[in-house]
Amino acid sequence: MPEKSVPWWSSLHSNYGRKRPDGPSLNAAYTKSEGYIAMNRIADTENGKVRGLPGADPRITVFKGIPFAAPPTGENRWRAPQPCRDWEGVREAYEFAPISIQDTPGLGSDIYCREWHVDPEIPMDEDCLYLNVWTGAGNPKEKLPVLVWFFGGGFQWGYPAEMEFDGERLARRGIIVVSVNYRLGALGFMAHPELTAEQPAAPTNFGCLDQQAGLKWVIRNIAAFGGDPGRITLAGQSAGGASVLAQMNCPENEGLFQRAIVLSGMIRSPYEEDKFITPGSLEAAEQKGVDFLEVLGVDSIAQARELDALYIRDKYAEYASSHPRMSISIDGHFCPGEPMKRYMRGEHIDVPVMAGNTEDEFPNLICAASRQEYQDKVREIFGEKAERFLAFPEAGNSGRDPLGGQEAAGAGEYAAVSGIECTVKSAFIQDERNGFGGRNYYYRFAPQIPGWDHPGTFHSVDLWFFFETLAKCWRPFTGKHYDLARQMCNYWANFVKTGDPNGQDADGSQMPRWDPYTAEYPCEMVFTTQGPLPGREKDSPFLRFLMEALTERLLGK
Fold first, then answer.
1. Which of 8, 11, 267, 509 has the most beta carbons within 10 angstroms of its beta carbon?
2. CA Rg, the chain, in Å?
């Protein structure tokens, strides 16, 4: 009797999960003629096995909701992240874990509720220390570079499950993407004298310690997903970018990562001291904690640890209506000093940095009811350099008159400038003066953004492009936008791989050259609707004046 024909896929099925002689911890379909041809969906972590699912592209495996620390509940509330317990069998890593405790997303009508905070029913829980992995590796021998992502949201809101953070397009370029969740608001950043006495080495900044624990988990475990623990890039946007800056300035992190990406995260004004996500003192944070316990109606941290997390959230919203919100504090341990000032002094971990801003976000201005008041404010800000400042054409009225022309001539907003652009460029120049630099890349995101709301390049819109997730957005993006997103994602992937963003586009052609930003050669990459356009002209005298003034203030001169 003739031998039965065997379907082409039967040998693949019979070998599925079988290990090669070198025994990779990522099992894969294997045939003698073809080698690894498909990745098994199981990885063996330090706490147990996890099973992922194929992405939209089945060559990518997505693992969602992997625990990297114990639940920060009960006695672990307001405590540094604790070790995760082991589990038996294979844990299904199919869905995102609950988001951190925060205001319910998707209930407002603001641009972010329209853009991606669209689901008021998204699960939320204090048990939130989980991360997610996108990998296209066929086996752990590949040692692919790794991007560790921290989301933004002012340390009050946000979550890895936001649709723009889908890591699949980067994974298709040979990058393993890991997005890390962390605690927010009062549960993530409260300080209190009792906490300082109880745990002096970790009195606050629990959300940042969560990020650090996620990074260390990646170093210990990413090889099981085909990653290289010696090629890690930290990346984040807004408060996530500020988090990367804070991690760069934590001495304990020396050697844990090799590159950094700070999107819209160096937020300082050349005109005034900033309060926005700029760390304050531990003592000031402790006083916030004392005031907050009064709002909670309890007398001790022990009592506060017994309260329901959603009750704490709601009372925090009440507290925040009349008090500054809680975020990073200078605790002398994780955060030994203000990160931006430490960076300017050369006290940061020395790695290549990519940083920049969108063109329209967070403009800094000087507001005045009259031209005389404006000139008085300029003299207060710049002292003996005030007349130099006033002589610049850019120091004139910015064309926006909040008083509707009803007050004295000259009322309005003056000397508009991008504080983030000014800060990033100042930091890169100072980095060079400190003997670092020469490997730092500045970008400005400036394409036309479509939509009935005519939003301009608002804060965070570039995330759709860097992750190349435009198809998930409601905006009527066209082909040029998709071309730009592809190239921006390429630049990102190249930087993660080598520390240099340059390389080829999908068709094999060289993308426009992006050089480092230096004093002698201040190259900036401008992302426009027409594509990436390198700018190589010197910054304007006005901007250079403000950069130097900001540098002097941050250095305490």
1. 267
2. 25
Q: Does the pLDDT of residue 363 top 80, yes or no?
A: yes
Collapse the DSSP code of 72 into the 3-class scheme (helix H, G, I; strand E, B; otherwise coil) and give the result. coil
Query: What single-letter amino acid sits at 101?
Result: I
DSSP 328-397: -EE-SSS--S-HHHHHHTT-S----EEEEEETTSSEEEEEESSHHHHHHHHHHHHGGGHHHHHTSGGGSE
Q: Is 530 left (phi over 0), alpha (psi -120 to 50) or beta?
A: alpha
Contact between 528 and 457 under an 8 Å Cβ cutoff? The reply is no
Instruction: State the DSSP H helix or E strand holding residue 302, giving kind and residue range, or none if neither.
Output: helix 301-304
Q: Which backbone phi and psi does 368 adopt, to 5 degrees?
A: -155, 150
CA separation for the pair 263, 236 (Å, rounded): 6
What is the model's pLDDT at position 155?
97
pLDDT digits (tens, 9 = 90+) for 141-157: 899 999 999 999 999 99
Long-range contact pairs involving 512-518 (C-beta distance under 8 Å, separation at least 24): 514/441, 514/443, 516/437, 516/438, 516/439, 516/440, 516/441, 517/425, 517/428, 517/440, 517/441, 517/442, 518/428, 518/429, 518/432, 518/437, 518/438
Query: Residue 468 — left, alpha, or beta (φ > 0 → left; ψ -120 to 50 → alpha)?
Result: left
464 token code pair: 């759709």
What residues are labeled active site? Answer: 238
Q: Name the burial class of residue 195, with classes exposed (0-12), middle (13-18) and buried (19+) by CB atoms within 10 angstroms of its CB.
A: buried
Name the band, by pLDDT with cuts 50, 70 and 90, for residue 138.
Answer: confident
Query: pLDDT by residue (tens digit) across 374-404?
Result: 999 999 999 999 999 999 999 987 655 433 3
What tokens appear for 300 in the block?
A: 């001790």
Q: What's the CA gap between 405 and 425, in Å, rounded?
A: 35
Give the closest residue to 96 by CA, choosing from 143, 64, 69, 127.
64
d(CA 386, CA 545): 11
Cα distance between residue 446 and residue 377, in whole Å: 31
d(C-alpha 248, C-alpha 259), whole Å: 10
pLDDT of residue 36: 43
pTM summary value = 0.91
Which residue has 């017994």 as its token pair?
Answer: 306
